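[scheduler] slot 2 assigned
[scheduler] job type: sequence-to-structure, two independent chains
[scheduler] chain ordering preserved from manifest
[runner] begin chain α
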Amino acid sequence: MKSQVNDILIEISWREIAIQYFGKSSSWLYHKMDGLDNGFTPEEATKLKESLIDLSKRIKNCAENIKIPETNCPTEVPN
């Protein structure tokens, strides 16, 4: 599983994913991602997929709500 999420591996708080979406500890999720404890069940893999999709939507909504201030460029002062 780690190779499948390599692109975002260090960008995501896997601890928060484990707690918020699975109700488990970060070590539980890390073990699953490392293939320990028989890795993810199909249901757990689906839940991980859905949690990342949910997080991506939340990030997108946050980004879309950022208000870009108008530039306040001072006008050039004549000599």
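[runner] end chain α
[runner] begin chain β
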Amino acid sequence: MANTTVRSAIASESDVRGMLGTDDGVSAGLSGLRSHVKIGAQNASAGQLREIVQWADEHSPVGCTIRPSPTKAIEIEVL
């Protein structure tokens, strides 16, 4: 299989009021993430290419981090 095309785009939604702090009732967090992948290869079926992208998503450090909603900690050192 010879890869001919790989393109990916990530999109998200958020409310700017949360990021700017103009409304304490609005979170600054993202309300969703979407990935769009375009992939093409010679001598590969559409099913094979979908399997490759699915495998990559399942093993992505970013995907593996955001799916289970990790715990968060902040450490502040004032000098």
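[runner] end chain β
[qc] chain β: The helical segments are 16-20, 46-58, 61-66.
[scheduler] slot 2 released
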